[in-house]
Amino acid sequence: MSEFLIQKVLGPDWHKLPRVIQSHYEVSEHRGSCVEGMMTITYPGYMLPLIRLIHRFGGLIVRRGSGVHTRVQKTVADNPLHWQRTMTYIDGKTDTFHSQMAYCAEHELIETIRFGFGLRLTVEVSDGDLVYRSNGHYWQYGRCRITIPDWLLLGSATISEHALSEDEFHLDFTIKHPLWGVTYCYRGNFHYC
């Protein structure tokens, strides 16, 4: 049996993850994954123009809110791990956020959205939590790649997944800029669909 993407990235550290976190990364061409939960999405109002620009490239969610029902589906096609996130707000309106992840090196992934925009992520297990940390953005067109430091956009992202029980985990996604502090955040508890 071939390795799952996160298993390949983490190597032996994969076995340090709680089963609830391993389960939703066990995605192959024959088996998808689905989790859902309630999230809070926040950011300072002055960040709205930059967040709207990033959203046009397919990243982040513009609308803030609490009690946002979120469904995350993962599939594998042609090797990358595809993510489809659907947020449904209290008023019934929805928003989506699509991305794909691919192996870069041991403990490193690349997450891409539209128009060649991507993010390098280091991945590790820390005290049983799965932790992603941004390591710079880039924009690629053909063979031309331009590196964009985190501080030039919203700042550095940290994503952590912490097991709460055998079938529930907490997700925290926070972006922090060295000058502006927290510029974007979403968090919530998830269980399997």
Count of individual helical segments: 3
Look at the structure and give the CATH class: Mainly Beta
End-to-end separation: 25 Å
Radius of gyration over alpha carbons? 16 Å
What characterizes the major β-sheet? 10 strands, antiparallel, barrel
> Any idea what the shape is?
globular
Written account of the structure:
The chain has 193 residues and is mostly beta strands. It has one domain (5-192): Calycin beta-barrel core domain (Lipocalin). The chain has three helices and eleven strands. Strand 3 and strand 4 form a beta hairpin. The model has no long low-confidence stretch (mean pLDDT 93).
Using brief descriptors, characterize the structure shown.
193 residues, 10% helix, 54% strand
Describe what is shown at a glance.
With 193 residues, the protein is mainly beta. 10% of the residues lie in helices and 54% in strands.
Strand and helix map with partners:
Elements: H1 5-10, H2 19-23, E1 33-42, H3 48-56, E2 65-76, E3 81-88, E4 94-105, E5 108-112, E6 117-126, E7 129-141, E8 144-148, E9 156-163, E10 168-177, E11 181-192
Antiparallel strand pairs: 1-2, 1-11, 2-3, 3-4, 4-5, 5-6, 6-7, 7-8, 7-9, 9-10, 10-11
